[in-house]
Amino acid sequence: MIVIKENERLYLRSWEYNAARTITELAAIVKKNGGRVEPCYAAIISNRTLTAAVMEQVEHVDQMEKTGINAEAIAAARVKLEQLQAVNNEPITVTHTSYISFVLDGFYYYYQVDENPFFDFLYQKTRLHGKEYSRDAVLKDDPKIWVKDCFFSFRCPQKEIEEAAAQIFKLLTRARESGIRRSRRGKRVRVENRYNSGYHYKSVEEPERFCTVDF
Hints:
The chain is 33% helix and 25% strand. The chain is α+β, with helices and mostly antiparallel strands. Helix 1 crosses helix 4 and helix 2 packs antiparallel against helix 3. It is elongated, with a radius of gyration of 25 Å. The protein starts with 7 loop residues before the first strand and ends with a strand.
């Protein structure tokens, strides 16, 4: 999920909403531990799953009242509506939504979740060389031990968000350094023959690629 402008307004499903809260909390943990986080555009988010549930229940109560169902059933439906309306869905600001990049203690880290929680979550930990890190560092799969049922609900408490962010931070900082993967075939180049005027081709391993940390 890419935010393309500052304070972009997003209406997210429960999973996306809670993931954004978690990655934002992870950014705060990194900073508390002396790391530098790559800045992203902030987003203003609310939970569209909750909004839809409230609207559906309002329609349900209205329909019950029109059809003249017994008062006890209508009262129960109204109680459920009040419970849904009591769940806070005021817009909140998040600094990150689905991914984060940061540097800490001589390493560059990248972590991302997917909009589909059943797809892979990926991370990378690679050593810094001055202000550079390898573009060829291998992405690894997060085992997702932090993902609980409440992350698919509009009733996910802040305590669970904080615990999840702490688990991700522990996973990343305790992980082994990512390996480096480059093309096995390398780059095919033309080379002059040593003993005649002809030439031949051979594969030369492409050099490791680097990116510069600019935050």
